[in-house]
């Protein structure tokens, strides 16, 4: 399926965050739904975050004029470490991040709140595109949006990645995983007041991290399309990409009249905002297959405790009785192993319980999502799976590029209705209101839609017109 046709599918719409119970998750949703410049809740939240990072140490140089050399050294260090990683893999070491596919899918789900607002911290720069100091930041935002081309829109790419792996179900994630995304959304609504902090955050976020290179490599080994991650490796390059533009934006916006050092100190505080929340490496390191399986089964237990027939008994108890109370899931798994329903550290196909879940005529087919099935599969397979993989020689698999598909806005019939309605709406507006409407449609919650993509293309064309 092309990304252009994916936009209006149920899979795209099901990727949601409707289980907002924690404060950061609630704020995340509020800022998506209410993209108002100067949003009061966003300001209060951002001020708290800036106060928190005030005591943290920064690795930025003391002078902004040393940033280019700092960025180059950082890039060289990352590429050197990546070369060392590849050599380790060639010598026979296993995957560093994702020993099993379930681990990789857990990672994709856990970082989704951040990835699905990719670039949001720069949204508020759009009204200032005529200012040469801000123009590079605007270009960075539009490139995050793929300049309105569906196949290059970062959020849409990530949505399709989740859907391709069966992870597009409503995500029940820890509240802490929403904090970094909330910071990005808040910055995007407060550019007028916090431009130095936005520039500093952008400087940190656009530097190439080692985990991005390793993630792309290992996802590809697991037959998970790494294009989203590869795109960030190329577009964030330190020579002509977003990393270089981020450095230049600091220098372009340093005040010539006034306190340049105070401005740079604010830039450094914005840079440190990248350290708040749960980062990618922390997500990877925190994964525990057994605990994740228990958590998943406990969630299933709450809705499945009374739907099983009573003809099947395990150690004298029906399935409904095993699932009847919280805390019995671990005991149920042990009972399934003692009675031969699950045979650990062997091919899952040898386990009767797995055959109830997967395969032709499986009695429990569809009960578990693809991600949940992967958790169960990898837990049962255990050491057997690792032994199978160790017998395979290391090779760098050939990655596939994004398909060259029709652009959104070139679809027939009803799929193109939203774009056509937008064009008609814009025709009835004067130049000022037309530009304001285009900017609204490029908000983090809308830019990946058919109308949002068309608005991005129109806005990009407007910027290219002679002034």
Q: What would you say this structure looks like, in words?
A:
It is a single chain. This protein has 24 helices and 2 strands. It has 467 residues and is mostly helical. The two termini are 40 Å apart. The protein has 3 domains: 3-287, no CATH class; 290-390, no CATH class; 413-464, no CATH class. Strand 1 (313-314) and strand 2 (317-318) form a beta hairpin. The model is unreliable at 401-409 (pLDDT under 50). Strands 1-2 form a two-stranded antiparallel ribbon.
Count of individual helical segments: 24
Strand order of the largest sheet: 1-2
User: What gyration radius follows from the Cα positions, in whole Å?
Assistant: 24 Å
The N- and C-terminal alpha carbons lie at a distance of: 40 Å
Strand percentage: under 5%
Major sheet characteristics: 2 strands, antiparallel
Please give the share of residues in helix.
55-70%
Shape: globular
> Could you give the count of β-strands?
2
Q: Helix and strand succession?
A: HHHHHHHHHHHHHHHHHEEHHHHHHH
Low-confidence stretches: 401-409
Structural class by sheet pairing and helices: mainly alpha
Q: How many domains comprise the coordinates?
A: 3
The pLDDT mean sits at: 88
Distinctive features:
467 residues, 57% helix, mainly alpha, 3 domains, 24 helices
Concise synopsis of the structure shown:
The chain has 467 residues and is mainly alpha-helical. The protein folds into 3 domains: 285 residues, no CATH class; 101 residues, no CATH class; 52 residues, no CATH class. It has 24 helices and 2 strands.
Write the layout of secondary structure elements.
Blueprint: H1 3-6, H2 10-14, H3 23-33, H4 40-53, H5 67-90, H6 101-110, H7 112-115, H8 135-144, H9 154-164, H10 179-188, H11 191-205, H12 210-221, H13 227-235, H14 242-253, H15 260-272, H16 280-285, H17 289-304, E1 313-314, E2 317-318, H18 319-322, H19 329-338, H20 352-357, H21 370-390, H22 417-427, H23 431-441, H24 450-464
Antiparallel strand pairs: 1-2
């Amino acid at each position: 399926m092309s990304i252009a046709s994916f936009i209006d599918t149920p899979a795209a719409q099901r990727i949601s965050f409707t289980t907002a119970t924690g404060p950061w998750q609630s704020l995340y949703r509020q800022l998506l739904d209410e993209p108002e410049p100067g949003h009061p809740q966003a300001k209060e939240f951002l001020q708290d975050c800036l106060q928190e990072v005030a005591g943290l140490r920064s690795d930025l140089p003391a002078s902004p004029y040393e940033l280019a050399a700092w960025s180059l050294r950082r890039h060289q260090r990352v590429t050197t470490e990546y070369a060392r990683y590849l050599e380790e893999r060639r010598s026979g070491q296993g995957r560093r991040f994702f020993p099993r596919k379930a681990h990789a899918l857990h990672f994709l789900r856990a970082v989704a709140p951040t990835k699905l607002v990719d670039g949001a911290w720069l949204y508020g720069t759009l009204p200032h595109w005529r200012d040469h100091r801000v123009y590079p930041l605007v270009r960075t935002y539009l490139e995050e949006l793929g300049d309105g081309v569906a196949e290059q829109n970062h959020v849409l790419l990530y949505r399709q990645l989740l859907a391709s792996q069966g992870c597009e179900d409503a995500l029940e994630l820890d509240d802490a995983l929403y904090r970094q995304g909330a910071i990005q959304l808040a910055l995007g609504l407060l550019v007028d007041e916090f431009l130095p902090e936005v520039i500093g955050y952008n400087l940190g976020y656009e530097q190439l991290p080692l985990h991005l290179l390793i993630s792309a490599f290992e996802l590809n080994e697991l037959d998970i399309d790494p294009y989203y991650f590869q795109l960030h490796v190329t577009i964030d390059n330190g020579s002509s990409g977003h990393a270089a533009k981020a450095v230049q934006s600091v220098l372009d916006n340093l005040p010539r009249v006034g306190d340049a050092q105070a401005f740079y100190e604010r830039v450094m505080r914005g840079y440190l905002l990248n350290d708040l929340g749960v980062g990618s490496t922390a997500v990877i390191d925190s994964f525990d297959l057994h605990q994740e399986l228990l958590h998943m089964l406990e969630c299933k237990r709450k809705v499945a405790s009374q739907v099983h027939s009573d003809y099947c008994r395990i150690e004298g108890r029906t399935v409904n009785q095993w699932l009847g109370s919280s805390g019995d899931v671990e005991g149920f798994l042990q009972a399934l192993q003692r009675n031969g329903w699950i045979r650990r550290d062997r091919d899952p196909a040898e386990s009767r319980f797995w055959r109830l879940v997967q395969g032709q005529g499986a009695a429990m087919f569809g009960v578990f999502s693809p991600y949940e099935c992967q958790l169960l599969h990898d837990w049962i397979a255990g050491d057997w799976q690792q032994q199978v993989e160790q017998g395979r020689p290391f090779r760098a698999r050939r990655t596939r590029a994004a398909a060259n598909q029709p652009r959104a806005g070139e679809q027939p019939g009803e799929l193109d209705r939203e774009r056509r309605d937008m064009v008609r709406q814009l025709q009835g507006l004067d130049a000022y209101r037309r530009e304001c409407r285009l900017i609204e449609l490029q908000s983090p919650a809308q830019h990946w839609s058919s109308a949002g993509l068309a608005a991005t293309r129109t806005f990009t064309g407007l910027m290219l017109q002679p002034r």
